[in-house]
Amino acid sequence: MKKYLTVITLGLALCAAGTLRAQEATKTINEKELSLSIRQIIDKYYREANFWVGGAPGKEYLDAKNEEKLSLFLSEFPYNTPANAFKQTSVYSEPGAPWRNEEYMKWIDLARRNRQVVRCHGPVSPQCSVWAKGLDHTAEELLPVMTRYMTELSKELEKNSDVVRWMDVVNETVATTDNNEYYKKGDWFGPMAKNVFWQNPWLVIGLDEKSGIPIYIIKAFELANQYAPSIKKVFNQNGGGKDGVAWEKIKNTILYLRLIGQRVDGLGWQAHVSLGWEKDPANKKGISDLIDWCHANGLEFHVTELDVICPNQQTWENDRQAQAVTIKAVMDTALEKLGKGAVAVNFWDITSGSRNLSGKQMKYFGGVWPRKVDMDDPVYLSIKRSLLEHAPKVPPAACPSKKAAPKDAALKDAKGSKSAPTKAAKAPKADKKSGR
Length: 436
Hints:
Blueprint: H1 2-25, H2 38-45, E1 51-55, H3 67-76, E2 79-80, H4 88-91, H5 102-113, E3 117-120, H6 139-159, E4 164-171, H7 215-227, E5 232-238, H8 244-259, E6 266-270, E7 272-274, H9 281-296, E8 300-310, H10 313-318, H11 320-335, E9 343-347, E10 353-355, E11 363-366, H12 378-389, H13 407-411
Parallel strand pairs: 1-2, 1-9, 2-3, 3-4, 4-5, 5-6, 6-8, 7-8, 8-9
Antiparallel strand pairs: 8-11, 10-11
């Protein structure tokens, strides 16, 4: 009898614990706190949490006509991932080309002045130059370009490790769709004809004989670890919760890299999710399980490019509420893991936009705000609501809110000033854990 009572008691305790977790995940918030900015919520509640939230600004943010948008980004987000400034196509496009670091140094200086941490989105990946594309290159042509790119970039990141915390070392290494006659789901993603927009030429360098892993992946981590030892290394990948074949290949690759002594600190999920992502339970379960795997293996988990793919222009422009539901579902999935390991969420362009990257049908992406910023926008409010619902219980006195840097200081470097940041504005090494 005691045995059965013990089982019943244990069952009731587990149910109660599950109910408590569910209640905590949807706890009542102080509605007045929705007037706080994202950054104010982070400063108030998340200073001691291993959690970051940010965005990926493009080069156009630095144009004088976009001062307001840049100022908004710097004041709202403590985490900065320049969208294209670090990429091979922007920095070192072909043999003999000059090294171009002007744009990414502006972003690093802006981050330093505005108490932001930076993730370098400069992976060896399909984000490559026109020169690198096609089926005609040899390993002897591609390897020196890749080697110089990753070597010099890593050295510069190391010099700026007071604000640069992470670097994407590789990205989109495994195919998640069937690419016509070239690649099937789960294949190592590689080169295609010169005129194909999305391709990964670095696979031409070859496969490691022992592991079957592309040499460029192993080499990229070797160089990043050698020349940027202070920077955390992220293995980034596109796909979704149901792309199990791709994720298993990535997991095994990460474990092998560690086995041969290469440091890998985080796994990134490139979250361009379709509207209604939350309606299929397999989507959330797949990502939730992936986060659990990361934390069980001592890895950070990064949502790296969050936005919502809308089916048509009308939905994109008029149904922000539906987009809010999808964005919040992704946010909730990440925030439910607080306390189990490090998690970061990074939005793509903070305003909505349309892109026709492959020369095919136009795609419409919903961001934090619509094309015109509206502080009462449903998506923006849903992000803050998710942050407040999952906020750790921290005594207010332990986490004073900080004001963002003045607008003129925030924009000074964007206008071309080369003056060094003041010591007061520089992100202190001692605050490296929280990065706030």
